[in-house]
Amino acid sequence: MRKPIYEKLIVFLLGVFMAISAMFLTGAAPTAQVGRYQIQSWVRDNFLGVFVVDTATGVVKYVDRDQENKPFEEIK
Q1: Cα–Cα distance, 16 to 10 (Å, whole number)
Q2: Cα 40 versus chain centre, distance
Q3: Tens of pLDDT along 29-76?
Q4: Which pLDDT band holds residue 11 (cuts at 50, 70, 90)?
Q5: What's 13-31 look like in SS3?
Q6: Beta-sheet strands, E only, within 1-76
Q7: Sign of torsion over alpha carbons 62, 65, 66, 70
Q8: List of residues 6+ apart from 43 with CB closer than 8 A
Q9: Which of 56, 58, 59, 72 is most exposed, with minimal Cβ within 10 Å?
């Protein structure tokens, strides 16, 4: 015996609802971005140079000894 079309529609819509719910629930928690900041460093004689690149915004900052251990937003 075949199911009526409205029963098939209800099952289909329930499946769509469950799939959309799963997508929203798995992406709900804010997490830190892995690999957001990239570092390029070099040494010339006794001088250490460091560039830090924010890959999300494209901002490049030069870090020297005065700016060590500061958050990226506070580096000039």
Answers
A1: 10
A2: 21
A3: 666 767 788 888 888 787 788 888 888 888 888 887 777 777 777 777
A4: very high
A5: HHHHHHHHHHHHHHCCCCC
A6: 37-44, 47-54, 60-63
A7: positive
A8: 49
A9: 58
Q: Decide if 53 contacts 63 (C-beta within 8 A).
A: no
The pTM of the full predicted model, rounded to 2 decimals, is: 0.46
CA neighbours closer than 13 Å in the CB half-sphere of residue 40: 7
Evaluate whether 24 touches 34 at the Cβ level (below 8 Å).
no
Contacts of 55 (CB under 8 A, 6+ apart): 35, 36, 37, 38
| Helix or strand run (H / E) with residue 9 | helix 5-26
Q: How far is the C-alpha of 11 from the C-alpha of 17, rounded, in Å?
A: 10
Domain spans of the chain, in order of start: 37-74
Q: What does DSSP assign to residue 57?
A: T
